[in-house]
Amino acid sequence: MQQQNRKIRHVRNEKLQTIKPGYRGNKIIDGLFANGDELYLPAFSNVLKWKLSPNPQRDEKKADMFVPEVHLGSDFLSSTDDMVVWLGHASFLIRLNGVTFLTDPVLYDLPLLKRRVGLPCPPEHLCGIDFLLLSHGHRDHMDTKSIRAIFNQNPSIKALTPLGSGDVLRGIERRLPYQEAGWFQQYDLAPAGIEVYFMPASHWHRRSAFDMNKMLWGSFVIKTASTLLYFAGDTGYGSHFDEIQELFGAMDICIMPVGAYKPTFLMQRSHLNPHEAVKAYNLLRGGAFIPMHYGTFDLSDEPAGEPVRLLEQIASAGMLQGLQIPSIGQPVLLSELVN
């Protein structure tokens, strides 16, 4: 279909502030969210090609027994320190200025996909959470069982979500209050001294056969008087990293995805490999680099330990300053990271 015959509109949450001058809102083409200016509809033929092609690293992957270490315990939940705690995959507990966030919670096995490593404490212990940050609707980031469990343990929690997420969230837990934002929009929050922005990512959406790109995807910036924290969500490499840096300046903490990048023909527009993640981090002029989206689930062709090995090599070569590779459940204290 020619571009001139397509139905194009732009949407945003008109109740929220848009921080990028002149930005009209997220582009929708024929009812589907665009990946920036263009539609991205992952080809099923690429999935078939992947399934039918031999993995050139098959033997290496089979022999790689890497799993992230787990720091057992739940003391971080009762601490008042500002911190970042990895819970596996893209799930983090983040505390800033006394406000506690939980990102993309996936605390259990998924259908047909088991966790390769456990949690530091039972999911039922995860209390005292103020906000749920949901970057997009893929099931390894927006898990029904996990969201229900978190809401039951945190009945006053609120969700900060992308445009188009309402139907999905109401189907998961109708009592969960949520606020939708488009790219470059600031959520309207009650706590003083903390700001949350929904920012771009290069990705796509699908949860069922009939909802391709009906829900937006993105990343988050959390800002306090002393700290800028960037949570990248799921993303491929793109110009949005330059745009984020131009709007906010240097990031103190970058939580970057570094796994599920092979085969390249299938993953490149959706996920970062370690080299791309470091390139993006350097564009963001990042301080601490905390990797995610590796080791917890088997999603792709690279060996489980390859992302960490590559990051350590890049750091040793002097191209990555501030690398932090915490265990699952190990608090990374912001007082030790941010000057």
From TrEMBL:
Which SUPFAM superfamilies is this protein grouped with?
Metallo-hydrolase/oxidoreductase (SSF56281)
Q: Which Gene3D superfamilies match?
A: Ribonuclease Z/Hydroxyacylglutathione hydrolase-like
Where exactly are the transmembrane stretches of this chain? none
Gene Ontology cellular-component terms for this entry are: cytoplasm
Q: Which domain of life is it from?
A: Bacteria
Where does the record place the Metallo-beta-lactamase domain?
101-294
Q: Which PANTHER family match?
A: N-ACYL-PHOSPHATIDYLETHANOLAMINE-HYDROLYZING PHOSPHOLIPASE D (PTHR15032:SF4)
Name recorded for this polypeptide? Metallo-beta-lactamase domain-containing protein
